[in-house]
């Protein structure tokens, strides 16, 4: 702390003040307009913590209040900064009036000047990330790209991606588009643009993991508690951070704060009205010729749309313009990191080809969601952690010697309130009792494994008459409401897969022996393989190798029976099977990938019939 | 007698000017600083194969013992790492050749060798395996008056068949088989003729030449998965080889330009001060002025590294560090070509033609993107 810092600011910024988990970074959504008399009125004023506001009030978002729709379309400032007095000093009275008028018309012009020159990066910082969808590695620096050497290099994580740098703005508030001419809020139904819907993706970057308290479980799982780490939540606009640069973030106007997913129109409405009465802030109420002239200027400008200027739509770094911004929230909190290596040699690639499902990422995402569920849903932990208290995300790591995933859970409130520290203590206390025999009873991990194994799945299958009957404990194909599907995961349903997550978590505990623990969890896949194999000439009599292990219990009014699991398929003494989705095996004509089974089963038939291969030999 | 290499001869099949030495031309330095990542990655995969074959396969006469993946295990990693560091001083290799990166690449190479083992060698007796087998100093006369005096064959396997005859397998490693393979096919045909004329390259004697059969394959070694590898068997009938050689022979001394899909920065004339004037937009692989290019579904998957020529329709200043949008009106619809990563500012007037090279992605029916590898020159 230096002498110039306000003491309360210091305490607040360093999270020394109790927040009681209430948001301390609230921002407004304000819909201001002009009434019939040309006077300013506030139609809507609501506020929320920045974390929620980023998506709930983000540009393109529809907000309904008293049955009226408002579409957020720009930033909002309660009080716009006026021109710098130094700048006004040498100007004539008329010129000074013009400067002041401009600051009322273009409420963001001075604000952007200030945030661009702020070396502390409080409002404007930089987000550097790899452009490979599978990687998304982020650099910890918040400085502009010209001052970050790593931003000029290829991504060290995946080795192939390029680092893309985007200006990140902490929004001061949000507002809808207001007609410059009438001062009314643009009716969402009559808007020229299609109302944009935002994805609710929240890429979260965490700075380098570094040192922290650590405990190890099984072969590969390491859990670390990191205190007071800086995280960032990002609203990347309609696109995703992995999209090409012209789709990520928003075009913006430095004059009025308008934001647009697409190209900002040359002439656009501002996100605020300018009542005639604002002239009083410009010193133009006198009776001099200058004042009269200035009043005309003010009245003329306030009723015209804002005109987009090329250099007023870019953040400059060493003269290089960046014409799209992303919105974000930086915050400091406690983080619990579950580090699990990815077996590069035996597992599918962490960087699959374009269009190929990223199993690695899906497996890691599934594990983190199951861990979050285990923490928030298990009353036995005695911590009373709610889903609104924590969230999680994944991040790749690559030490050069080893690569893998850091699955991190963080407290959502700025500063953190010690929930994860308490959880870490529970894990630490139980660490000595950890054993693979009692694995499914171990706090957090046991509950996650049980869920991922499919023990809680609830599916329906048709009986002989075609009536659907409920089956308990039969693992679902993807995810279901019994295991991982709920309101908090439905938006990421396609990014989750119970089986891949289960196998990855098993690998973290059992290492390369994890396949022995899979059991019958891929019965449906083996049965699908059987269906396919039987269509091939010579394979009609293939059979499934059943186990005595129960796959689930069929329950209806008149039936109660056990379903038996299937481990593999056999034909003429040769065993065929679908292997774990996370494994990448050399082609041997006996063990097939589940991705191929689901996306291109003809390939299995081709491989088994092997017609083209015969040509290679003479 | 024409003394040349397989590469030059293959080029000559397409264009006499390209096959020429190009010494009289001065290339304009518009290339972005670093060699393309794809080239570095290709080099990386080639030298890993070379290292494995020379150190293990040529001695054990096997592609499975040891598995190539073992080169990056804890026991062997230091040796491989040292070799890579030495090599990186001589050729362009990726900057971060970490253990993880090697494991990824070796995984793919393992699946390639596994495929060759199972499907080409297939329990037969291997008597020779070689890597980067040099044609020189043998100077093989392959056709009337064509002498091949340079070049290296990526991999060569000699198999003794049960009837006592031999099968020599020539393999060319390719990072991808999706590009222009015709030139590679022709190279393979030249190598096939070289081996036929000089079986000593495959570890056999001249006397064995009557009992030799030759197969040539292109194998894709790009990627990181153990997928079944893509490969292509090159047809090496005498008819095809002779047809190719006779056309190539006609062109090789002619210096006549025949522009086409093969035009790229590999040809010194494309970006030289006295640039090739025969090239126009329609001759190249991608023609932005052709309405057909803009039709069809999303082409995002069809990323292509290629040269293009564009006729400017509106005055524009292309600036360093930003995305420059060139607008074209095709069939009454405005199309945008976004150009990123140019090396110098250029002011362009309506009607001027620019030639550049880069990774091109057509994202929509109105928008294409060029990540520039060779900045535009005005032609």
Series of secondary-structure elements of chain B, N-terminal to C-terminal: EHHHHHEEEEEHEEHHEEEEEEE
The CATH architecture term of the largest domain in chain B is: Alpha-Beta Complex
Helical segment tally of chain B? 8
- Could you tell me the CATH topology label of the largest domain in chain B: Lambda Exonuclease, Chain A
C-alpha Rg of chain B, in Å? 23 Å
Estimate the strand proportion of chain A: 25-35%
Outline the biggest β-sheet of chain A: 8 strands, mixed
- Give the uncertain stretches of chain B in residue-range form: none
Mean pLDDT over all positions of chain A: 85
Q: For this entry, what is the oligomeric state of its chains? A: heterodimer
DSSP E strands of chain B, number: 15
Given helix and strand content, the structural type of chain B is alpha+beta
**How many helical elements of chain A?**
15
General shape of chain A:
elongated
What does this protein structure show overall?
The complex is a heterodimer of chains A (618) and B (379). With 618 residues, chain A is of the alpha+beta class. Among the domains of chain A are: 329-517, no CATH class; 523-614, no CATH class. Chain A has helices at 7-13, 50-56, 85-89, 93-105, 109-117, 289-302, 359-377, 419-430, 445-453, 498-510, 515-518, 523-533, 594-599, 601-609, 611-614, and strands spanning 26-34, 40-49, 62-65, 68-75, 124-130, 163-169, 173-176, 204-206, 213-217, 221-235, 251-252, 259-260, 267-268, 306-307, 315-317, 320-322, 326-342, 390-398, 403-411, 458-462, 468-472, 543-555, 560-571, 574-578, 591-592. In chain A, the strands form six sheets. In chain A, strands 5, 6, 8, 9, 10, 17, 18 and 19 form an eight-stranded mixed sheet that branches. Chain A is elongated. Chain B is built from eight helices and 15 strands. Chain B folds into two domains: 2-252, Alpha-Beta Complex (Lambda Exonuclease, Chain A); 282-378, OB fold (Dihydrolipoamide Acetyltransferase, E2P) (Beta Barrel). By secondary structure, chain B is an alpha+beta fold. Chain B is globular and about 70 Å long.
